[in-house]
Amino acid sequence: MSSKTYYDPADLKKFGDIAEWNENLANKFFDYYGDVFKPGALTAREKSLIALAVSHTIQCPYCIDAYTADTMEKGCSEEEMMEALHVAGAIRGGASLVHGVQMMNKAKKISM
């Protein structure tokens, strides 16, 4: 049985390599990314916890790995990390369910 996955965890370390094919845009992105995660109205810890939750919502394995490590380095507990994940899950579930109103409106219109 192979332990190889589609997403190779080693590829996360190659993220900077995206500059090879367009250095200008990569530099703009990395400058922006760096600025976003600087402490501001939110602490770096809070931003990392948000990033962890969003990582699960967009289902990015690289981001999940990176921000699991980052939140732990910034002192987040397992309980805080899981609670953030549940917030993301609730929002994602709610976003799916609220579209049920669109379905109901369409079904009622067709049934008329």
Brief summary:
It is built from five helices and no strands. With 112 residues, it is an all-alpha fold.
List the helices and strands and how they pair.
Elements lengths: L22 H14 L7 H14 L3 H13 L4 H21 L1 H12 L1
Structural account:
With 112 residues, the protein is mainly α. It contains five helices and no strands.
Number of strands: 0
**What percent of residues are in strands?**
under 5%
Q: Tally the helices: what do you get?
A: 5
Spans of at least 5 consecutive residues with low confidence: none
What does the average pLDDT come to? 94
N to C succession of SSEs: HHHHH
| Largest sheet properties | none
* Helical percentage: 55-70%
Rg computed from alpha carbons, rounded to a whole number of angstroms: 19 Å
Task: Name the shape in a single word.
Answer: extended
Keywords:
5 helices; mainly alpha; 112 residues
